[in-house]
Amino acid sequence: MAADEYHAKWSPSGAAGWSTCVGKIAMEDGLDDQPSSYADEGTAAHTVATWCFEQTTDAAAFAGRYVPIRPGVTVEVDDEMVEYVQAYVDAIRQYAGEKPESPFDFEHELNVEQDVPIDHITGEDGATGRADAWILTADGEELQVHDLKYGRGEPVSAEGNLQLLMYASGALRVAELLGAEPKHVRMVIHQVRTSGPDEWVIPIHELQERISYLRVGAARSYDAYECRATWIGTPGEADYLNPSEKGCRWCKAKATCSALRDVVVQTVFQSLPATPEEFDDLTADTPAVVPQQSAPSAWLASSMEKVGLVEDWCKAVRAETERRLLAGEKVPGYKLVQGRKPARKWADAEQAEQAMKSMRLKADEMYTKKVISPTVAEKVLAPTPRRWKKLEALIVQGEPPLSVAPQNDQRQAVEVKPVIEEFDDLTTEAPNVDDLI
What we know:
- The protein is of the alpha+beta class.
- It has a domain at 31-228: Lambda Exonuclease, Chain A.
- It has 15 helices and 9 strands.
- It is globular.
């Protein structure tokens, strides 16, 4: 296989897709990435974390700066990013054994944003994956691999995470070249905006076993890629495609994937199980609409498993339609229109500032002030704990909202009492009035 410059075609971040849907890489061939504001924000957060270690400072030092993402696109480091990136930086410093007397001096060997080899897994010549951080303990017994997830979406588990397994295997090869022989690997997901670090520890031999299965998936994916001209667009296309929520999430071809479209159609138009009082109308062109309250819980559960997949497909179809219209292509029944104008801004803020000064505007008329966030204040007052203790009493934090999650989610279930149990049972026999006197 030929290397694709820095970003590997069979990348660790896409392993959940190409290892289960062998035709994914072939279907994506030639399609451009569609950047999103969420991806840009994540890139900025990773960059700020890297700056913290490179410049031996905290995230607050970069508050207000703009991180360059690509030509014409920057992301501002706001108070929220400072808070969450600092949580990640603090965690890595703790894992690396930061010496109290010397900040950013560690007991263990820390490597930040380092490329590790993955070609021994995927077969792609010279392919590498960039690990956010990996650590080799001073005794050489433990290899750690850390991954920062900056999104607010569904919690990501470290256990069985294919991306981390690939990083761990690559870091292991580097560690072995240094003469180390780790006995186990600790893989850690830092999803700072939803939860604390999530760990998974396995012995080295289990890591090797899991990588061997991943190597088989990569080989099958490569074979499908090599013969893509013979099956894409043919009736046999479905044999190479295996839609799944994780595998399709970041796929560039999901808007035009026939297998995913079939799964969506089957999910959306599946009939509810019939009851003795209510049977499907077999003469109707569309499935009968059944009242929501009669939907069995088992049907809801099976449908809920596909909701994320269906939602992702809908977003992908909308994005592909927009892309084609922006490229001047025709999509029957749809057109581009002007939306609302964005907020006004100064073409040159410094020039506007000087102009207002020449008009002798007062400072409180020209500028707005915003109190610093609790996270920044904590860093500022770190040398004086007693002052911070007084300020800490003024901090409040709301409760996180409830959301639906699968049973295997690691978060504790919130028990909600059915509404009907909140009311008195009026069907019971009323007490005798004489007994109450």
